[in-house]
Amino acid sequence: LKTLNIKGAKKFKISEKPIGIASIGQVHKVSHSDNFYIVKLIKDQVEKVFLREKKTIHKIFTDPELVHSFDGGQKRIVYNLIAGIEEEIDFSFEKTNILSANSIYDKKFEDFTVKSITMPNWFINKGKDNEKKNKNLDILFMDLAAGQALSSLLKEGSSMELFPAYKAMAGLYDHYLKTALDSKKQSFFFHGDLHRDNVFIDFNENYQPLLTMIDFGNASKLTRTQRDFLVDVLIQTNKTMTTNEKNQDKAILKVSNIIKNYIVNEKSSNFNNRDYETLEVFFSTCFNPKSTI
Predict the structure, then answer these.
(1) Residue 243 near residue 236 (C-beta atoms within 8 A)
(2) Which tens digits make up the pLDDT trace of 181-207?
(3) Residue 168 half-sphere exposure, CB side, CA atoms within 13 Å?
(4) Which of 101, 159, 228, 275 could form a disulfide bond with 271, CB atoms 3.0-4.6 angstroms apart?
(5) At what angle do helices 245-264 and 273-286 cross, to 10 degrees?
């Protein structure tokens, strides 16, 4: 907090025990007066160990006696991995992703609302100082998401909550898929890790869900080539072998509708074996915490 020159830094109270831990970062709950935030920090010693190992790898790859032991493909894999870790230990990338998501994902639908996690304005403005100095941002402040993780609700929720939750989750998936792949939207932005622990859910008095997407550390933009490849996968899945934009959009809509129908009523007799194969492919990649798009 002091490195960000935030006034009253001593008045912030941080939970000693993290509420979430990953390989590189950890998350704590923070209070300041009557306001509550989530703060993401780099785990102790991670950056130091990474820089040491990066230096060691460079020495190995440039050692005259070892340089011929590695081909270009192997080096590319390692250097791409290093670049990915460098992004993870600099929260300015995730901060930019969150700001992009705020403008791309946030939308009110008829029966539910989708939004992405927000950051307090004072932090957004302070973080700009680091960007100007080309310094890594090693702390990320976010507003507290409303409600609870979707995974918790699906285990313990009441029937009054579960049905609108499933329906809203289907709508969220449809929105997510179209945002990344729809030829008319052209954003090609995707969350990158959209499983049920990264979606928070809250309800208004009419049990209409508010879905908040969190953790944008893996978010990115598809290149046109990547987008076309994924749309081709959808087209092949639906036995639509033409590649014009009209059929691409139809393929996207078809997959979205299959998943929506399945989530709302998985015992429906309207699904054929091909639909179930489609679901198996997309659920294994989009809703499995161990293997997400």
Answers:
(1) no
(2) 776 666 788 888 888 888 999 999 888
(3) 30
(4) 275
(5) 90
